[in-house]
Specification:
This protein folds into four domains: 63 residues; 87 residues, Nucleic acid-binding proteins (OB fold (Dihydrolipoamide Acetyltransferase, E2P)), CATH 2.40.50.140; 95 residues, OB fold (Dihydrolipoamide Acetyltransferase, E2P), CATH 2.40.50; 149 residues, Nucleic acid-binding proteins (OB fold (Dihydrolipoamide Acetyltransferase, E2P)), CATH 2.40.50. 24% of the residues lie in helices and 40% in strands. The radius of gyration is 30 Å and the shape is elongated. The chain contains nine helices and 21 strands. Bound molecules: zinc ion.
Amino acid sequence: MKTKTENDMNPHINDIERVLKENGIDAKREEIEEKFIFAITTQKELSTKEIKQSIVGHYGLEGKFFDEFSKIKDINTEENGIDLSAKILFITERMVNTKNGEKKIKSGILGDETGTISFTSWRDMEFKKGDDISIKNATSKLWNDNAQLNINEWTDISLSDRKIENIPSRSNDKITKIGEIPDSMKNANIVGRIVDVRKKEIGTDDKKTITEGEIADSTGMLRFTVWKDMDIKKGEIYKLTNAYIKRWRGIPQLNIGDYGNIEKTSAEDIPDMKTLTSYHKTDIRSLQEGSGTQRVMITGTVMEVKDSSGYIKRCPECSRVLKDGVCSIHGSVKGIPDLRLKIIVDDGTGSTLCIINRENTEKLLEKSFADIEKEVKENSGTSEVFRDIKNRLTFETINIGGTYSSDDNGDMIVAKEAEWSQKDITEEMMTELEDAEDLVRRD
Ligand SMILES: [Zn+2]
């Protein structure tokens, strides 16, 4: 196995080898590699191009042998003095805080015939999307294993006559199945049916509309967030490209940011809406032995009602549940009241945490949110209300339908449906009893 540096070095060694061969010089590859490694470690101020130039110089070749411009696909280490001819595919600006105060930076994506690279410009540049530009003396940095181009005050940029076409697609085309999505991933591509979609307003001062929902394929379902207002149709199949996956309260979520894309597509292997949205009746042990996020239905007994159940307050920024008026991320905030249940349910094969939303909590308690709010006021606090809820639920049997997930912190079902289940259990017990009686009779 070659190390990353050795692999990154290969295109340059190939380049040197080619120039030497073309000029009738036979050099050992190991020797070229040795010279190259020596040069990049001892002459850090030189650009890769200058290093290559100096190595062929060692073999008696004078003159310019290497392309004036680097190709984007070859920029994969930290380098100085990069010259590039590229097209601006995307450009945006933002303010950042530096030790010298606020500074406007521009960032985006550049492309040439060999690939694409993201860039950050620390100086203002008056170029727009679609411009073909020539860049002299940029540097590259590695960021999460990907090279990024930095344009600083020593970099020259100008419009170029060289029109760049046929830029390869930025995303790799591999489609990941929802059930096989890791905890975190960049550049994920997913094809699935939109099971639900909602618009949501976020932010307090600077309001912004985002689009979120659930997307599903034959292997599972996933929450997605598009960080802008977008028209996405429920029930239709979409391809999401360049998305990134992040865990949010233990559940993987798909995010479409500035670089991501979402478009309508067709795919034969995506089940219909009815199949995707029906709950799969199972037991907790099977869930814990399986993997991925699934729509499931379980029947179990409430073993514990957690303290943070009942009338709660949420952070207006991130909707985390506040603890004594404090959000773990945003500090002391004015909370928004809500109603929810956080319970441990055991079905005889295992137990799991279940989170039940306001709507289903109202249904189970046969009380409206307004009723609960009134009770809290009358009792001047939540403790009475919590005790009532605890008494009403503990050791009762309920059916819960929702999304199951598990991570290092344990597992849980986020319920979409919840109902009392006395009847089901009785029926089930009757069947079991009848089966047992049958067995006795046969003996
Ligand atoms: Zn918060």
